Amino acid sequence: MSTRAQRLDPVVRDRLVCPQDLGELIDAGDELYNPRLRVAYSIDELGIPDMLIDDARAVSDEEHRAFTATPGSEQAGE
């Protein structure tokens, strides 16, 4: 089953940026994630991203590592 982030229209997804720093966002399941500011923006059940700064949630260090990990890097000491 695909995530909400994966189901976003590709044209729309390519244009979505973080409203705080205007930087790229990472697909993080049912959210879009900004690793620079460590905040996540939810995507509702209809597939609509909530890009309001006040609604963004802070991400823990553990979640940040999970969202930014590349396959095979867990043991590589990166």
List keywords for this structure.
alpha+beta; globular; single chain; 78 residues
What does this structure look like?
The protein is an alpha+beta fold. It is built from three helices and four strands; from the N terminus they run ααββββα.
Question: Which structural category do the helix and sheet elements fall into?
Answer: alpha+beta
Mean pLDDT, as a whole number? Answer: 92
Helix content: 10-25%
Main sheet: strand order: 1-2-3-4
Radius of gyration: 13 Å
Helix tally equals 3
Largest sheet: 4 strands, antiparallel
Q: Would you list the SSEs in sequence order as H and E?
A: HHEEEEH
Tally of extended strands?
4
Q: What is the 3D form?
A: globular
Task: Detail the poorly predicted runs.
Answer: none
What topology emerges from the helices and strands here?
Elements: H1 4-7, H2 10-15, E1 26-28, E2 31-34, E3 39-42, E4 57-58, H3 61-68
Antiparallel strand pairs: 1-2, 2-3, 3-4
Can I get a quick summary?
This protein is an alpha+beta fold.
